[in-house]
Specification:
Elements: H1 2-12, H2 17-30, H3 33-43, H4 54-65, H5 69-79, H6 82-89, H7 101-111, H8 116-127, H9 132-143, H10 152-163, H11 167-173, H12 185-190, E1 205-206, E2 208-209, E3 223-229, E4 232-239, E5 242-247, E6 271-279, H13 288-295, H14 302-307, E7 310-320, E8 323-324, H15 330-344, E9 351-353, H16 362-369, E10 377-384, E11 392-393, E12 398-402, E13 406-417, E14 426-434, E15 441-447, H17 453-465, E16 467-471, E17 474-477, E18 482-487, E19 489-492, E20 500-503, E21 506-510, H18 522-526
Parallel strand pairs: 1-11, 2-12, 7-9
Antiparallel strand pairs: 3-10, 4-5, 4-6, 6-7, 7-8, 10-12, 13-14, 13-17, 13-18, 14-15, 16-17, 18-21, 19-20
């Protein structure tokens, strides 16, 4: 744990990528092999499940620190991070430990099934043996909220430097259904085992958002265009008469979509498709809200399959007849995919194709983007015709040109402190719209991004002077300020008081030119449905 805590401290203390890579490289060269595997798992989102819930951890930490619950909670909301708060309020450690990282994580796997008394005893024992930073890291792992400023790509780069193995090869090795508790560093990283590759997807290639003028990308004739579908990015793999479906989040989701098993009966072995899983109710593309009813279900009933079937809309082919064809130009890969679709579209009902388009002017591209919402897409994908299928996000070849977001003017009604560097400021806001007769403000969304640091500080000062009521960490404020709120999607919802759920709400601007009487109504919002 000491070495891992020192690594996290080094990473936290710098914003320079090269320094982070250097720290990781040194760690991988010096750490125990079991610790290396668990570190790779943590940095590639394979953390063990949380053994103790946050309410219990807060209670236990408050008891050990011998401070009242209200003071602990107030400290937490000022600090903005639970693990950091606990590391600060607990008494200084009386002893030390050389217990390695992997031993702690293996403990956590067993701790989940233990009684509350045993969990409390375990936390007390180890909190008192760890110094401030070790305690911080230990608690982060215990809460399951371990996030640091290191991407998997950065970790892979450091691992490549320490092992001499190519980054792309490592990225592929780290995909798939491996678990740190039953994997060794030798078998995961150093050995070549063909059986390991049976179900493995390829690293996903990602697009950059268009931020400047379309003309800056070059000539439209150099690109292929298709609509950007709002579903679950996935790879569909057919190998050795089996089918595997992997989400972009590296989750094996085959069992969640049994209707896609039809691919196994027809596609040749050695075929890997990249595409989007989409809800398809009533023989038409649904919205993401429909798909969410399938995502969270462990048991897929016949009724649910009938109500919300899914399709796989393919837009690339990465492996064909056991050959990795990612290095071939996109145009050639699409010809293979188009022919494959023509051969099997009648036999495999959930098999759909994301059609490609070509344009001679950027004006025509913009015109096509305007059709996106009518066909349930988020905008356009712009892919260079001669591009290979890369690893991760690389600027220049693939671009996403999303539809302009919805927007509406709303009134700030509640606020909470932010987290991290904004933990001393009120930056998490709740917004409301008028009811039909403009007699009541009704909550409809929360947002915490979109303002500049200067604007956040200005709003914070105003909130502190214009709080009308306090509800724990939440402050109700005078209804006085209007903000323009943008969001990507909208759907009816029985769970929200407004009757509407918005997707990815964020602040566009502070409308100082408007009074609260100028804010929009719920009817205005519902008209966007």
């Amino acid at each position: 744990m000491k070495n891992f805590a020192q690594l996290i401290q080094q990473i936290d203390s710098t914003n320079k990528t090269n320094n982070k890579v250097k720290a990781l490289k040194t760690y991988f060269e010096q750490a125990d092999d079991k610790d290396k595997v668990w570190t790779i798992a943590i940095l590639s989102h394979r953390r063990p499940p949380r053994p103790v819930n946050s309410t219990q951890i807060r209670e236990f930490a408050g008891e050990l620190s011998k401070i009242p619950a209200w003071l602990f909670e107030e400290s937490y909301h000022i600090v903005g991070d639970l693990a950091e708060t606990i590391a600060l309020v607990l008494p200084k450690n009386k002893s030390q430990t050389d217990k390695p990282l992997h031993a702690y994580l293996e403990d956590m796997l067993k701790l989940k099934s233990k009684s509350d008394v045993e969990k409390k005893a375990y936390l007390f024992k180890h909190w008192q043996k760890l110094n401030y930073y070790e305690r911080f890291v230990f608690t982060k792992l215990m809460t399951g909220g371990f996030r640091i400023g290191v991407s998997q790509k950065l970790m892979t780069r450091a691992l490549s430097q320490s092992t001499g193995i190519d980054q792309d090869v490592l990225a592929y090795k780290l995909m798939g259904d491996w678990k740190p508790q039953n994997t060794t560093f030798q078998s995961l990283i150093l050995e070549e085992n063909p059986e390991d590759y049976l179900s493995k997807p390829y690293p996903f290639y990602l697009a950059y958002a268009v931020e400047d003028k379309l003309e800056d990308l070059g000539q439209p004739e150099d690109f292929l265009f298709e609509h950007k579908w709002d579903g679950i990015r996935a790879q569909l793999i057919c190998r050795q008469d089996e089918i595997f479906i992997w989400s972009r989040g590296e989750e094996l989701v085959t069992y969640k979509y049994p209707e896609l098993a039809a691919f196994k009966d027809h596609l040749s072995n050695g075929t890997v498709l990249d595409g989007e899983i989409l809800a398809f109710p009533n023989e038409d593309i649904g919205d993401f809200k429909d798909l969410q009813k399938r995502i969270g279900r462990k048991n897929i009933t016949k009724a649910l399959l009938k109500k919300i079937p899914v399709i796989f809309k393919a837009y690339d082919i990465l492996e064909w007849k056991d050959e990795d064809i990612r290095s071939k130009p996109f145009l050639k890969r699409r010809k293979v995919l188009d022919e494959l679709f023509e051969n099997y579209k009648e036999k495999i009902k959930p098999f759909h194709l994301s059609e490609t388009m070509q344009f001679s002017t950027w004006k025509a591209v913009e015109k096509e983007r305007q059709k996106a919402r009518d066909i349930r897409s988020e905008g356009l994908m712009i892919k260079r015709a001669d591009s290979a299928y890369g690893v991760g996000r690389k600027k220049g070849d693939w671009w996403k040109y999303k539809s302009d977001p919805y927007s509406i003017d709303a009134v700030l009604t509640y606020a909470m402190r932010g987290h991290g560097r904004r933990s001393n400021l009120f930056t998490d806001y709740t917004f409301a719209l008028w009811n039909d007769d403009k007699t009541e403000l009704v909550t409809f969304a929360k947002a915490y991004s979109g303002l500049t640091d200067k604007e956040f500080k200005e709003v914070d000062r105003w909130i502190k002077k214009h709080t009308t009521e306090r509800f724990g960490p939440v402050r109700q404020v005078e209804a006085q300020h209007v903000f323009e709120i943008a969001f990507e999607g909208i759907a009816e919802s029985k769970r929200h008081k407004s009757g509407v759920a918005t997707r990815f709400p964020r602040i566009i601007r502070w409308r100082k030119d408007k009074t609260i009487e100028d804010a929009n109504t719920l009817n205005d919002l519902k008209s966007l449905l």
